[in-house]
Amino acid sequence: MTLTDPTHQEPTQAGDRTIHDPRTGEVVGRLTPATPEESAAAVDAARAAAPGWARTPAAERGTALHAAAAAVRAAADELADLTERETGKPFAEARGGVDAGIGTLVQYAELGPLHRGRTLHGGWEATDLMVSEPRGVVAVLTPWNDPVAVAAGLIGAALVAGNTVVHKPSERCPATGRRFAELVAEHLPPDVLCVVDGDGAVGAALSTSDVDVVAHVGSTAAGTEIRRACAVSGAHPVLENGGNDPLVVDAGVDPVWAAEQVALGAFANSGQICVSVERIYVHADVAEPFLDALTTQAHEWAERIGPMVDREQRADVHRQVTESVAAGARLRTGGELPDRPGAHYPPTVLDGCTADMALFAEETFGPVAPVRVVSDFDTALQEAADDRYGLGATVLTADMEHAQTAWRTLPVGTVKVNSVFGGAPGGAAQPRRASGQGFGYGPELLDEMTTVKVVHLEPAPAGRR
User: How crowded is residue 168: how many other Cβ atoms within 10 Å of its Cβ?
Assistant: First the structure.
């Protein structure tokens, strides 16, 4: 498919979307969604290119991905600038996301040619193999909050495993997503990587089309629809969806340090990270000094965070905050719409929250730290575990027994102890329940992008060849 810049199209079709800079509100681009015919043509083109790409030696696919990583590296500032203008993510953070994407492309360029296969121990006269093969065509649907890093992982793993890809970037950052795809596609045969522009309707059409994998990072509502579509079509879903990640502050920890950890988890990228801290349980013994320190942290973070992605997302967050205050939560700081252009929202701290408030029951995806004071650690763990999501959780404790109990019992894909964003490279957790399914990162993502064929080779009897 031909890659074109959607911001050059005039907004004359139904469903066109204007992209505003979240910092200033000015128009920075326009998106014309792909028609059903254009989406179908992209899938058909990727399907036609699949056999040739699958037959390309794995080392050559890895070399192509290395070249794509070099191209992205050369255009890193351009991609970071596009990300900042379309999503409001500060340039330094946006550049960090691009750099992470470059590293991910290199990682899969190296891992792909080494992907597993094995021999089986059968009879002497036969050979038995388990062979890894590409699944075929992968629909990759990526979000706006870290567009290059997420796309690099899913697209890189799919391509190096021998699949072709149809990529739909988020409608909130179409120019970023399309430019990244252009840079990668320049180093691939035609139609191995196709791009379609559009919103959720286009993504839904792709997930019900003739594809073999649907890889999606985004909302739980969209992920639920994709699960249903894949159950009918037989496509393999790889989903990282919403999270409502808890953080537990145990007795005996330094309340100022705990507040710093919580502020980082709740306010970084204006709270718009899949694994942001969404609800905080603090032991009563340290509650007051912790809340004071967290309020101070919120004031400090107000000077350095960027805006939210758009006013629509900001309105959803503000609604949750105001509803919680009306239901009895106490606003410590923030919670007011600023009188300025763009989609800014202040770091917000509330206490007195209850489990039935939307701030605690649903993913907020904004710079909000809702706090609930509990009487003991066991209560905190029990309430933290009582949730329909299962993405991640953090526990701050000096008690090793509590740490061990926490990671053993919390029903989530990732548990972090004493470091809200800590973790070694290569981690590939599986989100649970409403948060998705499948490995979305690390070497295990190659398993999601491939299928296994068992082969039994035995010679024909003498005289019958």
Answer: 29
Q: Model-level pTM greater than 0.90?
A: yes
Burial class (CB in 10 A: 0-12, 13-18, 19+), 337: middle
Tokens of 314: 């900001």
E strand or H helix that includes residue 105: helix 91-111
Tell me the backbone φ, ψ of residue 131, rounded to 5 degrees. Answer: -110, 130
Give residues with Cβ within 8 angstroms of 329, minimum separation 6: 350, 351, 352, 353, 354, 357, 359, 370
Give the C-alpha distances (Å, rounded to integers) separating 256 from 154, 236, 252, 289. Answer: 38, 45, 12, 7
CA 266, CA 65: separation in Å to the nearest integer?
34
For 305-362, the three-class secondary structure string (H helix, E strand, C coil) is: CCCCCCHHHHHHHHHHHHHHHHCCCEEEECCCCCCCCCCCCCCEEEECCCCCCHHHHC
Query: Could you tell me the domains of the chain?
Result: 6-241+431-454 (3.40.605.10), 246-417 (3.40.309.10)
Sign, CA torsion 293/296/298/300: negative
DSSP 384-407: HH-SS--SEEEEE-S-HHHHHHHH
Q: What is the 3-state secondary structure (H, E, C) of 279-298?
A: EEEEEHHHHHHHHHHHHHHH
Q: Which of these, 401, 398, 308, lies nearest to 348 by C-alpha position?
A: 308
User: What is the pLDDT tens value at each position of the chain, 465 positions in all?
Assistant: 333 333 334 444 557 999 999 999 999 999 999 999 999 999 999 999 999 999 999 999 999 999 999 999 999 999 999 999 999 999 999 999 999 999 999 999 999 999 988 888 989 999 999 999 999 999 999 999 999 999 999 999 999 999 999 999 999 999 999 999 999 999 999 999 999 999 999 999 999 999 999 999 999 999 999 999 999 999 999 999 999 999 999 999 999 999 999 999 999 999 999 999 999 999 999 999 999 999 999 999 999 999 999 999 999 999 999 999 999 999 999 999 999 999 999 999 999 999 999 999 999 999 999 999 999 999 999 999 999 999 999 999 999 999 999 999 999 999 999 999 987 777 788 999 999 999 989 999 999 999 999 999 999 888 765
With 0-12 / 13-18 / 19 or more C-beta atoms within 10 angstroms meaning exposed / middle / buried, residue 401 is exposed
Letter string b/e over residues 315-336, b meaning 16 or more CB atoms within 10 A of that residue's CB = eebbebbeebbeeebebbbbbe
Q: Distance between CA atoms of 68 and 60, rounded to whole angstroms?
A: 12
Pair 202, 33: CB distance under 8 Å: yes
